[in-house]
Design brief:
This protein is an alpha/beta fold. The chain has helices at 19-28, 41-53, 75-85, 105-122, 134-143, 162-167, 185-193, 223-234, 238-253; strands spanning 3-8, 31-37, 57-61, 90-97, 126-131, 151-153, 171-175, 199-201. Strands 1-2-3-4-5-6-7-8 form an 8-stranded parallel sheet, with helices on both faces.
Length: 257
């Protein structure tokens, strides 16, 4: 069985125990690839270092909506430089989040658009964060005629009615450990309903831990538990889910690999 963790943050400063041990446990669980997403200029170099040292780590570089107020004047040029240095890199984590304390929705939209346009120019897929901004997300993606080189809505938290609209724009849906919880009825309903050709799994590690794992201690090996939960809600075999989601992620994110 092979698995692909389609969204994690191995550069996170909260990691303890060393990256080699984390990757060894991932490998033992069948995780052969991980998309490691940067969130701001401050961590892009750390993502780059990990990707250079470990071939199973696929890099992504992006400016997350939580950190746009800390951007430098040259952030977009630096992002393009990083992406050109890594032809295998995706653009992410980018997106919209209307739950932030100080409202900056207009700035978020402008920065999101700039990164979508860069992804289009460089022919790269994207990894998208969206919280309580689904109307604006659909408007922006529709105005850009979707995602010509594909992308994923990471840790999808929308409603089932959004699924055909997003997949119609070539956005895959990635499900995290939140679907392991039986009480997450909407998330599990979406995981059951999503079109299999747009289906991905992730850990968002070190966050969104499965039951029994402390917040901040999640790791890519736990994507196997996400796969198990997805197999349960879809009524199919674990091996089938692993094969489908891994294949989808490889086609989407394993550029030039």
């Amino acid at each position: 069985m092979t698995l692909f963790d389609s969204h994690c943050h191995l550069q996170d400063v909260r990691w303890v125990g060393g990256i080699d041990a984390i990757l060894a446990r991932a490998g033992a669980a069948g995780v052969e690839h991980m998309l490691c997403c940067g969130t701001s200029e401050s961590d892009w170099q750390a993502v780059a270092t990990l990707a250079r040292r470990h071939p199973q780590i696929i890099p992504a570089f992006g400016l997350h909506p939580w950190f746009i107020d800390k951007r430098s004047p040259d952030w977009l040029a630096e992002l393009e430089r990083m992406l050109r240095l890594f032809p295998s890199a995706s653009v992410g984590e980018i997106g919209l989040d209307h739950t932030v304390g100080e409202k900056n929705d207009a700035a978020q939209a402008d920065i999101f658009l700039a990164q979508l346009d860069l992804a289009r120019t460089l022919e790269r897929p994207v990894s998208i964060h969206c919280r309580t901004a689904w109307g604006d997300m659909l408007r922006i993606l529709s105005a850009r005629c979707g995602l010509p080189h594909g992308g994923a809505i990471h840790s999808f938290s929308g409603s089932p009615d959004l699924i055909p609209q997003l997949t119609g724009l070539k956005a895959s849906l990635s499900f995290s450990g939140s679907i392991i919880d039986d009480r997450n009825r909407r998330g599990r309903a979406c995981a059951a309903a999503a079109d299999e050709q747009y289906l991905l799994i992730e850990t968002d590690s070190p966050d969104i831990p499965p039951p029994g794992v402390e917040l901040g201690a999640n790791e890519p090996a736990n994507v196997r538990e996400v796969a198990r939960a997805l197999a349960e809600v879809r009524g199919c075999a674990l091996d089938s889910i692993a094969e489908r989601t891994s294949g989808n992620a490889l086609r989407l994110f394993a550029i030039n690999n």
